[in-house]
Design goal:
Layout lengths: L4 E5 L10 H11 L3 E5 L8 E2 L2 E2 L13 E4 L10 H7 L3 E4 L6 H9 L3 E3 L4 H11 L1
Parallel strand pairs: 1-2, 1-5, 5-6, 6-7
Antiparallel strand pairs: 3-4
């Protein structure tokens, strides 16, 4: 996997371990990737996975290879301007998340989009092949 710096929009906290929105980023971090937490809830939390929390993807300093998104399809458009401002190389919508209009707007801005795929599953598959 070429992506090394991944922001996770909608990440949950350690208290929600066992849920994909925590376990997938924890796995990625364990594989040596830099995981930057961007939770939607948990206003009092300042760190997740030992990393400082950001409230918007565009507030993350430096370039992002990928933004892994754990949000319901109905909630995605509220994040569009933030993602467009952040300009990651890829926006990855986790398994079960698909929104064609949202994806189209990102692609038009030069951002690649993956919809309805689990990053953990794909990462493990690529690791076995590589």
């Amino acid at each position: 996997m070429r992506s090394k710096r991944i922001a996770v929009l909608g990440i949950k906290t350690e208290a929600q371990a066992g849920q994909p929105s925590f376990d997938v980023p924890a796995y990625l971090q364990g594989q040596g990737l830099e995981v930057i937490p961007v939770p939607v809830y948990y206003p009092d939390v300042t760190t997740i996975l030992g990393q400082p929390v950001y409230r918007k993807v565009a507030d993350v300093p430096g370039a992002l290879d990928l933004v892994d998104v754990f949000r319901r399809p109905a909630d995605l458009m509220a994040h569009l301007d933030d993602l467009l401002a952040a300009k990651p190389k890829v926006v990855w919508l986790q398994l079960g998340i698909r929104h064609d209009e949202f994806a189209k707007r990102l692609v038009e801005a030069g951002i690649d989009v993956v919809q309805d795929r689990c990053l953990l599953v794909d990462h493990r598959m690529l690791a076995r092949q590589g």
